Amino acid sequence: MNPATRSTLIFAGIALSGLSLGGIWVAKEAGRVMRQQQTRRALSSPLGVDMAWIPSGKFTMGSNDGQLDERPLHDAKIRGFWLERFEVTNEQFAKFVDATSYITTAEKAPDPSLYPELAPEKRVPGSLVFFAPSQLTNFTDSAQWWSFVEGANWRHPEGPESDLKGRATHPVVHVSWYDAAAYAEWAGKRLPTEAEWEYAARGGLEQNPYPWGRERFPKGLWMMNVWQGNFPGENLAQDGFKGTAPVGSFPPNGYGVHDISGNAWEWVADWYRADYYAHSRHENPPGPEDSLDPEAPGHPKKVARGGSFLSSDTTDKGYRPSARRRISPGSSFSDLGFRCVKDGIAP
Questions:
Q1: Environment class of residue 283 by beta-carbon count within 10 Å: exposed (0-12), middle (13-18) or buried (19+)?
Q2: CA-to-CA distance for 128 and 153, rounded, in angstroms?
Q3: pLDDT tens readout for residues 123-154
Q4: Are 50 and 208 in contact (CB under 8 A)?
Q5: DSSP-based three-state secondary structure for 1
């Protein structure tokens, strides 16, 4: 073979190799773009809800400055996921109800088999509503400010005479864990695990008291809808709201997530166990398999996170990223809502 022919064949081989490698790259890139498009389509639920990408990473979960069930501090590694930027609103929940004819827990009479201690005349539809007491006799007795109101539900937040006028973009409340899970399934999503929720709430920061950092009022700004004044009788509303606020009324954290502190407590997927942190899995902890509340054995609880407009410095300080609240999954309150997550790939 003469040199000229050899050179021609070498150059041809190089060109073909380049074309082959280029074809592989193009195929991989096309696959990546297709997966991104599929993810975007999957995220455009029947509601077209805006979602934030929470990148994978590791963080220190819990706090030594909170309640005993926030300890011990432990590392948790979380895979990336999508999280709704805002709490689910009344308007969004109404679309779910209209599409499915779903009836919430608060709109149904309690099941006698689940609540045998209730007298028959008290087995009526309703929910727990906050009312500021005119006087306080015992600060440990929450019955002075929480009342079961017949006919209170997500459509009627304060009772049968109230409605949702002017509250379309407020977080939906008076939803049980079962209601939140049903909505999430309909939307093609799920409730976040407790570890996912706290990881996202911290906004990429490590062991800060607030989702945005260490200062409560950075540059003098109100950053969350919580209680100001002497709870539960004095509500100064210095943040501009006495009850829930329209979602997105306050700045987002580092991941672009709004109202992760205050406004409404948010259901998560996990059962509650006070001792879970001592032996939880370090990689994508799924939560315990069952519930144990030492203060109420035999009464299973789910976890809620984030605090609400009722959270104060003198009560639960629920606005902290590590704060946990244990609630019966069939219960509903006028300050309890949720947001959803979606599995997928990075944008």
A1: exposed
A2: 9
A3: 899 999 999 998 888 878 888 999 999 999 99
A4: no
A5: coil
Kindly report the pTM of this predicted structure.
0.86
Do the Cβ atoms of 104 and 176 come closer than 8 Å? yes
Q: Are 81 and 341 in contact (CB under 8 A)?
A: yes
**CA-to-CA dists, residue 125 to 81, 180, 265, angstroms:** 36, 18, 22
State CA 138 to chain mean position distance. 32
SS3 163: coil
Tokens 């306080």 map to which residue?
136
Q: Amino acid identity of 218?
A: P
Q: Which residue type sits at 43?
A: L
Measured distance CA(104)–CA(107) in Å, rounded: 5
8 Å CB contact between 343 and 42:
no
Tally Cβ neighbours within 10 Å of residue 314. 11
Task: Give the mean pLDDT of 182-196.
Answer: 98
